[in-house]
Write a structure and sequence with these properties.
- The protein is of the alpha+beta class.
- The protein has a domain of about 110 residues: Aminopeptidase, CATH 3.40.630.30.
- About 35% of the residues lie in helices and about 35% in strands.
- It is built from 5 helices and 8 strands; from the N terminus they run E-H-H-H-E-E-E-E-H-E-H-E-E.
- The strands form 2 sheets. It has a 4-stranded antiparallel β-sheet, sandwiched between helices. Strands 4-6-8-7 form a 4-stranded mixed β-sheet.
- Strand 2 and strand 3 form a beta hairpin.
- Helix 1 crosses helix 3.
- The chain is globular, with a radius of gyration of 15 Å.
- It starts with a strand and ends with a strand.
- The model has no long low-confidence stretch (mean pLDDT about 95).
Length: about 160
Amino acid sequence: MTVHVRLYRKADTQALAELFFDAVRMGTTEIYSKKQREAWAPNVPDVISWSARLEPATTFIAEQSDDIVGYMTLDHTGYIDLAFVRSDCLRQGVGSTLYQYLEEEAKRQNLPRLHTQASELAKPFFEKHGWTLLKSQTIRRNGTDLMNHLMEKKLSL
């Protein structure tokens, strides 16, 4: 899969909200129950709230043939809040391509480390890229328990 990476534009917001919904509802079926997926993503996020979540971060967009197939965010502390790949594009290198750009940007910003709360699906991905598990935790979303993992990667600058 040939993937082109670019930076987020405000016009991308609706597509990214829909991709998030697809990634959670369709891309995590092997790991999370239907109830858990519905609690995590009860509906497609509205454009205003999703824009407010995306705009403070550096957001990398992965495209294939002008279709958005994934994205990752990086804030000024090195936190990755959002990292999603469209469900029909999983395990095709989209996430790794995005991550390469994100880590290069973090080093350019002289960030000492990256950190995230990885889902069960994302945990092995981050481990493959040299991340360390700090702790696993149960979080509550819309009255339902979900497992995620506090992870970090120290960057050598």
